[in-house]
Design brief:
Strand 3 (55-58) and strand 4 form a beta hairpin. Helix 1 runs parallel beside helix 3 (66-76). The mean pLDDT is 92. The chain has two domains: 1-82, Glutaredoxin (3-Layer(aba) Sandwich); 84-120. With 120 residues, it is of the alpha+beta class. Strands 2-1-3-4 form a four-stranded mixed beta sheet, covered by helices on one side. It is built from five helices and four strands; from the N terminus they run βαβαββααα. The radius of gyration is 16 Å and the shape is flat. Bound molecules: glutathione. Glutathione binds at residues 14-16, 38-39, 52-54, 65-67, 101, 109-111. Glutathione (GSH) binds next to helix 1, helix 3 and helix 5. Belongs to the GST superfamily. Zeta family. One of its GO terms (molecular function) is glutathione transferase activity. This is glutathione transferase. Residues 4-81 form the GST N-terminal domain.
Length: 120
């Protein structure tokens, strides 16, 4: 029996979604892409109650957060590894990834921009 393809929920404007699409494509995973507006699509809240993209649906398993999804994909699809074996290189790679995910990207998010535009 064929296994269902994983489904990635994302949006064209979302760099977090792009990260996961790049990982899926580098690994050659056959997946379905569904574009959503996480703020206005009422059905999306049922998939990811915190209403953030991306989210990956793999069978009955739902995972959100781009880095968590990428590390899940790395374990599930070991072909074309994304994470180095060398622990120092791996540490530095995760450092860069976390700076992007936690220190740079959130400042460009809708929430921050909307608050800044109201206050500034
Ligand atoms: N740490 C999360 C951040 C997710 C995130 O900020 N997603 C943005 C799009 S890139 C989002 O869904 N924003 C919706 C909103 O601000 O309402 C990740 O890396 O996936």
């Amino acid at each position: 029996m064929a296994t269902a393809k994983p489904i990635l929920y994302g949006a064209w404007i979302s760099s977090c979604s792009h990260r996961v699409r790049i990982a899926l494509n580098l690994k050659g995973v056959d997946y379905e892409y569904k574009a959503v507006n996480p703020r206005t699509d009422p059905d999306y809240e049922k998939i990811n109650p915190i209403k953030y993209i991306p989210a990956l649906v793999d069978g009955d398993f739902v995972l959100s957060d781009s880095l968590a999804i990428i590390l899940y994909l790395e374990d599930k699809y070991p072909q074309h590894p994304l994470v180095p074996k060398d622990i120092k290189t791996k540490g530095l790679d995760l450092q860069i990834a976390n700076i992007v995910c936690s220190s740079i990207q959130p400042l460009q998010g809708y929430g921050v921009i909307v608050v800044y535009m109201r206050v500034g």
